[in-house]
C-alpha cells in the first residue's frame, strides 16, 4: 500500500483526522522501515480515537509508558523532492557578491574579491531594498543561499540579549550580531526557519560595532558571535577575529566567545590576547557529524584546534548541543568526552554547555524536505514546556545525568550549564 492511499482506507474520517493517521503511519513506517499495511493491519479500527491511540503507542513508546495523555504534533505530510539538500561541492564558492553602496570601498569587499576572483560583484543600494525586490523563501531558496554574499553596513541591529526560551533558566548571554547565515549545513539548524535573506550577510563596519559596544557594555558580561552564524567559518577572509581580539584586549572584564564547528583558527593563534577570549566548539560523535553537520570540521579536527588554542593560552569551551538521542548514544557520547579530556586539561575549560535536540514545530517540515532521509526526527519529539518539540522529560534527564557523570570522572569543578532547559530538570539534576 502506498502512503497516499492510506486515506482511502478511512473514507468516513474527515480531512484532519485522515491527515493525522497518515502522519502517524508515515513516521512509524519511516522509522521502522516497514510498510504502512503491516503497521495498520494489527491495529485497524474505524473508530478514529481508538486507531489514533494505538498508533500513538507505537510511535511514542517511551512517552506512552510515562504519560497518560500525549498530544503529538501531526502536520500534513508535504514533501517536495525539489527541496532536497544536495551536499554537492563542499567548497564555499559564491557566484555573486552584492555590496551595499556605503560599503563599496571597504576592506572586507577587497578580501572577498581576492578570495573569489570569479564571482560577480554588484553594487546595491541596500540589503533591505534588495530583499524587498527579490522575495525568496522556503527550502529551495535556502539551499541556494551559499551562492550569494552580501557585504553590508549594519545600522541598527548590533547587539541583543540572548532570547533563550520561555520558562528556561537563562545564562545571561549576549549576542554580538556580526552577520547572518552559515556556510555549513546542519540538519537541525534553526536558521533554516529563521532566514529570510537570499545569501550570507557580512557587515563591513565592525568599527561601528565597537563604537556602539562602549554604550552597550555591562560589567562581567559574556558575549559572542556564534548565534546567527558560525564565528570562525570564513575568518581567513573576514578577519573579524583579529579586530575583535584586539578590541577586547581593552575590555578585560568582558568575556568574548567565538563559537564554531570549524578548524579555522589561524588568525586566533597569531593574535595577542588578554585571557578574556573563549574559543568554543560544538561537539558530537563523528557518526552524528557525518550525517547531520555537513561541511563542518571533523570531531578530531575540532579537538585538535581546541588543543592548539589552549596551548596558546586561550580558554576553551565545549557545547554538547544538540545532543542527539540514538541507539548507542551513551557509549558514543562517553567516547567524545574521553577524547576531549585526552587532549584538554580541565583547567583550560571556561565552560561546557549541554542541550538536547529541540526544534520549533515549524522547522520539522523544513528538515523533512531538505533532509528526507534524516533520522533525527524519528525519535520521540513532543511539545515541551515552551512548545518546542523535545525528547520526553525522563529521557532528557537520563541524558544529562549520564553526561554529567562522565564529566565528573575528569573533574568535579567544571563550569557546566544547561542551555534552554526548564527549571525542574536543573533542580532534579542538582538533588540527584
Ligand atoms: S554550524 Fe551552526 S549556524 Fe551553521 S548550519 Fe550548523 S547549526 Fe547552523
Describe the structure.
- With 432 residues, the chain is of the alpha/beta class.
- It folds into two domains: 3-77, no CATH class; 155-431, Alpha-Beta Horseshoe (pyruvate-formate lyase- activating enzyme), CATH 3.80.30.30.
- Helices cover 38% and strands 16% of the residues.
- The strands form four sheets. An eight-stranded mixed beta sheet has the order 4-5-8-9-10-12-13-17. It has a four-stranded parallel beta sheet with strand order 2-1-3-7. It has a three-stranded antiparallel beta sheet with strand order 14-16-15, with no helix packed on it.
- Strand 15 and strand 16 (389-390) form a beta hairpin.
- The longest helix is centred in the N-terminal third of the chain and has 18 residues, at 15-32.
- It is globular.
- The mean pLDDT is 93.
- Iron/sulfur cluster (SF4) binds at residues 182, 184-186, 189, 191, 229-230, 261.
Write the layout of secondary structure elements.
Layout (H helix, E strand, L loop, with lengths): L14 H18 L3 H5 L7 H12 L1 H6 L29 E5 L6 H9 L4 E5 L2 H7 L5 H5 L4 E5 L6 E3 L11 E4 L8 E2 L4 H4 L5 E4 L2 H11 L5 E3 L10 H4 L1 H9 L6 E6 L5 H5 L6 E6 L3 H7 E2 L4 H13 L3 E9 L5 H15 L5 E8 L1 E2 L3 H8 L11 E2 L5 E2 L2 H18 L5 E3 L4 H9 L1
Parallel strand pairs: 1-2, 1-3, 3-7, 5-8, 8-9, 9-10, 10-12, 12-13, 13-17
Antiparallel strand pairs: 4-5, 6-11, 14-16, 15-16
Helix pairs in contact: 1-3, 14-15, 15-17
Low-pLDDT segments, ≥5 res: none
Name the strands of the widest sheet in spatial order.
Answer: 4-5-8-9-10-12-13-17
Give average pLDDT, whole number.
93
Sheet with the most strands, sense and barrel status = 8 strands, mixed
Shape: globular
N-to-C CA distance: 49 Å
Q: Which kinds of small molecule does this entry bind, naming each only once?
A: iron/sulfur cluster
Q: What name does CATH use for the topology of the largest domain?
A: pyruvate-formate lyase- activating enzyme
Amino acid at each position: 500500500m502506498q502512503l497516499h492511499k492510506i486515506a482511502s482506507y478511512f473514507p468516513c474520517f474527515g480531512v484532519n483526522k485522515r491527515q493525522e493517521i497518515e502522519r502517524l503511519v508515515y513516521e512509524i513506517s519511516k522509522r521502522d522501515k516497514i510498510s504502512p499495511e503491516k503497521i495498520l493491519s494489527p491495529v485497524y479500527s474505524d473508530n478514529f480515537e481508538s486507531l489514533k491511540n494505538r498508533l500513538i503507542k507505537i510511535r511514542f513508546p517511551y512517552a506512552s509508558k510515562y504519560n497518560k495523555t500525549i498530544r503529538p504534533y501531526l502536520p500534513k505530510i508535504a514533501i517536495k523532492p525539489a527541496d532536497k539538500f544536495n551536499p554537492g561541492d563542499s567548497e564555499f564558492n559564491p557566484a555573486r557578491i552584492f555590496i551595499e553602496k556605503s560599503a563599496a570601498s571597504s576592506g572586507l569587499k577587497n578580501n572577498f574579491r581576492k578570495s573569489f576572483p570569479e564571482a560577480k560583484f554588484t553594487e546595491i543600494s541596500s540589503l533591505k531594498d534588495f530583499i524587498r525586490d527579490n522575495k525568496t523563501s522556503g527550502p529551495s531558496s535556502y539551499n541556494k543561499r551559499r551562492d550569494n554574499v552580501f557585504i553590508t553596513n549594519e545600522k541598527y541591529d548590533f547587539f541583543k540579549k540572548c532570547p533563550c526560551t520561555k520558562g528556561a533558566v537563562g545564562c545571561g548571554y549576549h549576542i554580538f550580531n556580526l552577520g547572518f547565515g552559515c556556510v555549513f549545513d546542519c540538519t537541525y539548524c534553526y536558521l533554516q526557519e529563521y532566514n529570510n535573506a537570499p545569501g550570507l550577510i557580512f557587515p563591513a563596519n565592525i568599527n561601528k560595532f565597537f563604537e556602539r559596544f562602549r554604550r552597550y557594555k555591562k560589567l562581567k558580561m559574556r558575549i559572542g558571535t556564534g548565534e546567527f552564524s558560525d564565528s570562525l567559518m570564513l575568518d581567513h577572509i573576514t578577519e573579524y577575529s583579529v579586530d575583535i581580539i584586539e578590541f577586547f584586549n581593552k575590555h578585560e572584564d568582558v568575556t568574548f566567545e567565538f563559537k564554531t564547528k570549524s578548524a579555522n583558527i589561524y588568525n586566533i593563534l597569531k593574535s595577542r590576547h588578554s585571557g578574556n577570549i573563549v574559543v568554543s566548539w560544538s561537539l558530537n560523535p563523528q557518526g552524528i557529524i557525518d550525517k547531520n553537520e555537513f561541511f563542518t570540521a571533523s570531531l578530531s579536527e575540532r579537538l585538535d584546534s581546541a588543543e592548539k588554542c589552549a596551548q596558546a593560552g586561550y580558554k576553551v569551551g565545549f557545547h554538547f548541543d544538540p545532543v542527539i538521542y540514538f541507539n548507542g548514544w551513551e557509549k558514543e557520547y562517553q567516547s567524545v568526552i574521553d577524547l576531549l579530556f585526552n587532549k584538554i586539561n580541565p583547567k583550560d575549560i571556561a565552560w561546557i554547555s549541554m542541550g538536547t535536540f529541540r526544534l520549533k514545530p515549524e522547522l520539522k517540515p523544513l528538515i523533512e524536505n531538505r533532509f528526507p532521509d534524516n533520522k533525527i526526527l524519528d525519535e520521540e519529539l513532543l511539545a515541551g514546556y515552551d512548545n518546542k518539540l523535545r525528547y520526553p522529560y525522563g529521557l532528557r534527564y537520563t541524558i544529562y545525568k549520564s553526561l554529567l557523570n562522565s564529566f565528573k570522572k575528569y573533574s568535579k569543578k567544571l563550569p557546566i550549564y544547561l542551555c534552554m532547559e526548564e527549571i525542574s530538570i536543573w533542580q532534579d539534576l542538582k538533588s540527584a
